Amino acid sequence: VVECAAFQTSMREVLEALVTVHDDRKARTCLAGRSTVLWARRLMAEEFEEGRFIPGQGFTHLSLSGRFIEHVLSGRKLPGVEDLTRRKPLEIETMLYPQILEQKQREEDEDDSDVDADDDGDIEEESDY
Predict the structure, then answer these.
(1) Alpha-carbon distance 22 to 14, whole Å?
(2) What Gene3D superfamilies does this protein's entry cite (predicted)?
(3) Which secondary structure element, helix H or strand E, spans residue 114, and what is its range?
(4) pLDDT one digit per residue (tens) for the chain, 129 residues
(5) Is the whole-model pTM more than 0.70?
(6) What CA dihedral angle connects 53, 58, 59 and 65, to 10 degrees?
């Protein structure tokens, strides 16, 4: 479908939305299927070094196989990936874990203090609007 010029703009918009979600929200984004990945490389070549996708640069996962995304969406186990999730954490990871928890707690405390600062104790009446 992307071969038709009328669909290339939409494809670029979808790709840019995926990159934005990945970069702004640190979300996982996947591109799957040979045609999808190849057209993404063509349409977004200027956004990537030498027209190549680099891990962590806009997308977290690229797969030329469409079966990868079928397995992910259907909740099936992926060979090798499940083993990675069961591995023991490295020493550096266990050292960082308390720091990450502390940072999250500080952020939650800041969010709570922002809510408290906005609350002046007045009870507002509900309106019909």
Answers:
(1) 12
(2) Phosphoglycerate kinase, N-terminal domain
(3) helix 91-118
(4) 667 888 888 888 988 898 888 888 888 788 888 888 888 888 887 666 554 566 567 777 788 887 877 887 888 877 766 666 676 777 776 776 777 778 878 888 887 776 555 455 554 444 454
(5) no
(6) -40
